[in-house]
Amino acid sequence: MSKSTAPSLKKLGGGFKGKRRDKRKSETIATTIPVQVGDNDKRGSVRTLGGNKKIRLLRVKTGNLFDPLKKEFSKVTLIRVIENKSNRSYARRNIVTKGCVIETSSGNAMVVNRPGQSGQVSLIKLEK
Question: Which regions of 1-128 does DSSP assign to beta strands (E)?
């Protein structure tokens, strides 16, 4: 059964209101798929409201790194997740979320975007 954001059919006292209308496709809740550091990049697309498409990142190997000292961007290889403040087990499972610290080929970096929503990983190099 799919999850929906449609209004509830229950009254406050627990009674049944009755069927108001059918569920709409736009009211379904998308299942979350965690983005993992893996062997190669893997993306998927999802249809959103208005017929638009959103690119979902499923597995990632590379990211776009910004170095604030040199003020330049570079493409780096992601090695592993060091720390993830949203959930401790995410670091062990190599799941990438916004704000996590990742070991890259050019040092440690922090993720500054939401990779499951934007289809890429944007990083900023941490100072030492």
Answer: 35-37, 42-47, 53-60, 62-67, 72-83, 95-96, 101-104, 107-111, 122-125
User: How many domains are contained in the chain?
Assistant: 1
Residue 109 is assigned to a structural domain of this protein? yes
Question: pLDDT digit string (tens) for 48-97?
Answer: 878 888 888 899 999 999 999 999 999 999 999 999 999 999 999 999 99
SS3 115: helix
The verdict on residue 81 lying in a domain is: yes
Full residue range of the structural domain in which residue 52 is found: 35-125
